[in-house]
Design goal:
83 residues, mainly alpha, 4 helices
Length: 83
């Protein structure tokens, strides 16, 4: 679920960027700045979702994420010098 939230946030950010480019080129007058502001808010919403995707996850899923990270973590592994 959290990967879906991160993907939605990324797509929302990319579509906001495309909307800002479109608004800058096609929209005339004072409406241009309103459209750019609206697409900026949309991009910030996508950024929020992408950054906080694991915080939005339910507690059970957050526990599974933590267990997976702990299982794959090798920070305490001995250093190896044979490159």
């Amino acid at each position: 679920m959290w990967m879906v939230v991160a993907g939605v946030g990324g797509l929302l950010g990319l579509s906001a960027l495309a909307g800002m480019i479109w608004a800058f080129r096609k929209v005339e007058g004072g409406k241009k700045w309103g459209a750019l502001g609206g697409f900026s808010v949309m991009g910030l919403a996508g950024l929020y979702l992408a950054i906080n995707c694991t915080a939005i996850a339910p507690p059970e899923e957050a526990q599974r994420i933590n267990e997976q990270v702990e299982a794959e973590s090798d920070l305490d592994a001995p250093l190896d010098d044979d490159f």
